[in-house]
Amino acid sequence: MFDTVVVATDGSESVKRAVDVALDLADRFDADIHALSVVDASEVDASPQQLRDELRTALETTADAALATVEDRADEDVEITAAVREGRPAAEICEYAREIDADLVATGTRGRHGENRLLLGSVAERIVRTSPVPVLSVRQLDPVAEDEADDAPAQ
């Protein structure tokens, strides 16, 4: 059913559960995992000209760290294709899914800027609305529910 799963990550706390769910799903279906992090070009463009190169470098470093987190959370024998793109995050994620003929995109419901959004972060919402493939949006559990989920037996 799923041969290729894209997990979109920005390294935020809310995406960690989405990474775990995506890795588990890929394992169950023996699917390939692609981890993707997007450097938001609008953040770079909105910064003062003299800071753009430094900001781009910092955002690329953050993206690399987010991808490393996905690799760290995966089993040792799982091969992950990692990619960093620059652009509008939702558009880049959807385009990447098209390019690799993905079967599913997994994302957290809120990212680095998502605390001000009630249900879905703006990037997650755009992905859900525009993705060429099904989207699995995984919400972050509150700390008590997360502890209970960790203690629950595996299904």
List keywords for this structure.
alpha/beta, single chain, five-stranded parallel sheet, 155 residues, Rossmann fold, globular
Characterise this structure.
InterPro entries: Rossmann-like_a/b/a_fold (IPR014729), Universal_stress_UspA (IPR006015), UspA (IPR006016). It holds the Pfam family Usp. This is UspA domain-containing protein. Residues 1-139 form the UspA domain. Belongs to the universal stress protein A family. The protein has helices spanning 16-29, 41-45, 52-73, 89-99, 122-130, 143-151; strands at residues 4-8, 32-40, 80-87, 104-108, 135-138. The chain contains 6 helices and 5 strands; from the N terminus they run βαβααβαβαβα. Strand 4, helix 5 (122-130) and strand 5 (135-138) form a beta-alpha-beta unit. The protein has one domain: HUPs (Rossmann fold), CATH 3.40.50.620. The chain has a 5-stranded parallel sheet with strand order 3-2-1-4-5, with helices on both faces. Helices cover 45% and strands 20% of the residues. Helix 4 runs parallel beside helix 5 (122-130). With 155 residues, it is an alpha/beta fold. 32% of the residues are buried.
